[in-house]
Structure formats: structure tokens, C-alpha cells
Amino acid sequence: MKIAYDGKRAMRNYTGLGNYSRLILETMSEAYPADDHLVYVPEIRANPRLKTLLQRPNVAFRHPDRFWAWPKAVWRSWGVTKQARQEGAEVFHGLSNELPLNIHRSPIASVVTIHDVIYRRMPECYNRIDRTLYDLKYGYSVRHADRVIAISEATKRDVMELYGVPEERIRVIRQGCSPIFSQTASPERRREVRERYRLPHRFLLQVGTIEQRKNLETSIRALSAMPDEIELVAVGRGGRYLREMLELAEEVGVRRRLHILKNVGFTDLPALYQSAMAALYPSRYEGFGIPVLEALASGCPTVTSNTSSLPEAGGNAAFLIAPDDIKAMIHAVHAISNNTPDIEARRRAGKAHAATFAAADIASAIHTVYEEALASKAKKYSK
């Protein structure tokens, strides 16, 4: 099979959609070495996290041919279809919510992965132009794709409700995380990471962009009611909301106990999780919530929200709380801190839960979706 992928995020993004795109490309090219994997990108950029893919003989990166005179964004939305067709692609997989706008008029079968519809569920987090653009592009993609991959049951429900996509065209294939999180960091490695980031002795860890939806506020307010020796490390970048949270930390008297790390290397994250007392993720809405799975795979007790897809990510291992329930967060951290009898059981359950997201299983499920999309496209063309 010759498979084309939208590789923009794999090339440009170092978190979120970039991590998902690289994981799927690595997983599919390893599991199906006889397939050709063509990765279409607007431009080639240096990215050390593409090293594995660049060394695979069955993976080729493609960019606009030298005759393309329009902006690269236009190529990604329109020109890539013609180029993929000329190169014999049978399936096109949009890895990050969207497809070329003319793909449905080509003989290429189409699959799109939908991560979330936050712009519809929490419109206050986006400006009007972005909301409109996402709604148009992502709405087109799910309505015209031969198959839609939703990364959680929650996302599947959202796609069905908000865009009217029939259930038979949607397949839920939950996102996995990198295998580095299930590997135990050596004491030397953990010490090195602690020293590099000047980590406190006992700390709670929250990983993810520091924005309103991720809800660092609940963690800060809970911290103010915890013993002084417990501190909070937040990993991620932020803008106005981060400034508001720093002001809040000052207001509730925990500013010196709040540490913001903006440039943490991806390979340092497992040691961070494994050094933390607990991981906190009180997000208000997620398409999946990959930091929850990363924490559980690392053996880190985890407290997360009982909303959207987060119960799926947390399984039976995470403490589930309402996003604004400060008392419940304090209670969960207290139990973890005191190492109550079920904490070790939760650690084991977390690792077992994370192991169910095996790369080989994900690859097999996605390949089956490709075959279904091909069959669906062939049926349309035979009419």
C-alpha cells in the first residue's frame, strides 16, 4: 500500500499534534515495512526528533514541486492532492484534523484523525477568526473523509453530535505515548535532571501548555492548603493566563513554591514524572489528555479531571476529580503523600493501563481503517 500523510505537524511541532504525527509515522512505517509512506510537508526543516523517520527506507518526505508558485498553505489545502495522485498514493491520512479541500474529488481514499473540537466546546479559548476557520476546515474533513479516526470515545461523540457524521464512518483509536515513558530512569539520570532544572525536593508536576483550559488555577489554589514542603512544577509555555497565574500564586502565598519550566527536553520528561510525588492534570476539556497517559506509564500517581476524555486516559488508575474541586485534589494528594495502601496498586494499574495502548495494536487498527477507506472509495467510484 502507498500511503500519503499530512506531515506539517510532524515537521514543525514539538508537542501535541507533532508528537502524535511522529508517533503514528514511526509506528506505521515500522509495523508495515512493505508499505510506502509518503510524508507531505510544506517545507523541510531541521528537526532532531525526525531522526528515526529519516533513516527508514520506506519513508520519504515530499514538499511542493519546483513548479508550484502559490503560497505553501494553498499547496497543503489544494496542490498536495495532485502531487500525491501523481506519485501513486492510494490513501491520504490527515494526521491533525484536516484534509486537502479537493481530496474527495480524487481517487485517493481519505482518512482524517480528529483530536478534539475544543473550539466548539470552549469557544472562549479562541478568537472568532480561528473558530470559524477551524469549523470550516475540520467540518469539511469529517464530512468528506472515507473514514474518521477519533482519538477517544469523547471525541467520537463530539464529532457525531456537532457535525452529524454517522457512527459507522468513525473508528476510535486511542492515542498512545512514546515508549520512553515506560522505561525506568536510572538514579543517575534522575539526579542529572533534578540538577539541570533545579527541582525542589518534594513536588507535584503539571505538564502542558499553561492556558485557561488546562486549569493551573485549581492546582495553585490546592497547593496553598498543602504543607509548605510540597511545591508545584508546571512545565509549559504560556502568555496572559500564565501571568494571571503568577499573580494568583502571589495572592494566595505560594509564589516561591511555584516553578515554571518552559524549555524541558522531551527525553527529560520521564525522569521528571518519576521524580514527582504526583502528576496533576485538572483540565476542563481534552480530546484525549496524553500527559495523563505519560504520567501513568512512568509510574507516577495521577490526579485528573472526570470530564471529556480524561476518564479514558486515566482508566482505573488515576484519581478523578471535578476540575474545580480543590478539596478533592487536596484529598488525593494527601493520600498519595501518605502512601496509603492503594497507591502502589494504582501505580501498577497505571502501568498496566498505559501498556494497553501498544504501538503494534494501534498500527494494526489504523491499517484496518486504511483498508476500509479503500473499500469505501472503490464502492463510490463503481457507482
What does this structure look like?
The protein has helices at 8-12, 17-31, 51-54, 72-86, 118-121, 128-144, 153-163, 187-197, 216-223, 240-251, 269-275, 290-297, 310-314, 326-337, 342-355, 359-382, and strands at 2-6, 36-40, 59-62, 91-94, 109-114, 147-150, 170-172, 202-207, 230-235, 258-261, 278-281, 302-305, 319-321. Strand 2, helix 3 and strand 3 (59-62) form a beta-alpha-beta unit. The longest helix has 24 residues, at 359-382. The mean pLDDT is 93. It folds into two domains: 2-176 and 358-377, Glycogen Phosphorylase B (Rossmann fold); 179-355, 3-Layer(aba) Sandwich (Rossmann fold), CATH 3.40.50. With 383 residues, the chain is of the alpha/beta class. The protein has a seven-stranded parallel β-sheet, with helices on both faces. A six-stranded parallel β-sheet has the order 10-9-8-11-12-13, sandwiched between helices. Helix 2 (17-31) packs across helix 16. The chain has 16 helices and 13 strands.
